[in-house]
UniProtKB/TrEMBL annotation:
It is found in: Bacterial flagellum basal body. Residues 93-135 form the Flagellar basal-body/hook protein C-terminal domain. PROSITE patterns: FLAGELLA_BB_ROD. This is Flagellar basal-body rod protein FlgC. It comes from Thiocystis violascens (strain ATCC 17096 / DSM 198 / 6111).
Length: 139
């Protein structure tokens, strides 16, 4: 029975982690076309790093919670674009844009969304199992 309750903990931690991932992807998409005067000022896309948490009360490791270990900047270099009439253009006429692939970010968003939905379904199924278990005890 305690393993069933640990599944709630694991799924809840995964929901939180995927929510942060979705927000990070949204931020990347919102900044995908921003321009900056220098490479240093250019927005860098963010990536979420996950880490499982060892649960000492679950020696079989049937359900290991997950957490966001870090949110890191992409090492990709900004993309210089020659746009001399842009208000952010430097003295050479270049603006710098983040190296963000909208297609990759959308795929990342779909993956996070599906993972979120799967964890909601796990929680619903576990709840149903617990309810049925309680009903068996009442008969």
């Amino acid at each position: 029975m305690s393993n069933l309750f640990s599944i709630f903990n694991t799924s809840a931690s995964a929901l939180t982690a995927q929510s942060i991932r979705l927000n990070t992807v949204a931020s990347n998409l919102a900044n995908a076309s921003t321009a900056a005067k220098t490479p240093e000022e250019t927005y860098k896309s963010k990536q979420v790093l996950f880490q499982t948490i060892l649960d000492r009360e679950d020696p079989d490791r049937a359900a290991m919670p997950v957490r966001v270990a870090d949110i890191v900047d992409s090492p990709a270099l900004p993309i210089p674009t020659y746009e001399p009439n842009h208000p952010q253009a430097n003295d050479d006429g270049y603006v710098f844009r983040p190296a963000i692939s909208v297609v990759e970010e959308m795929a990342n968003m779909m993956s996070a969304s599906r993972s979120y939905e799967a964890n909601v379904e796990v929680m619903n199924t576990t709840r149903q199992l617990l309810e049925r278990t309680l009903r068996v005890g009442q008969s």
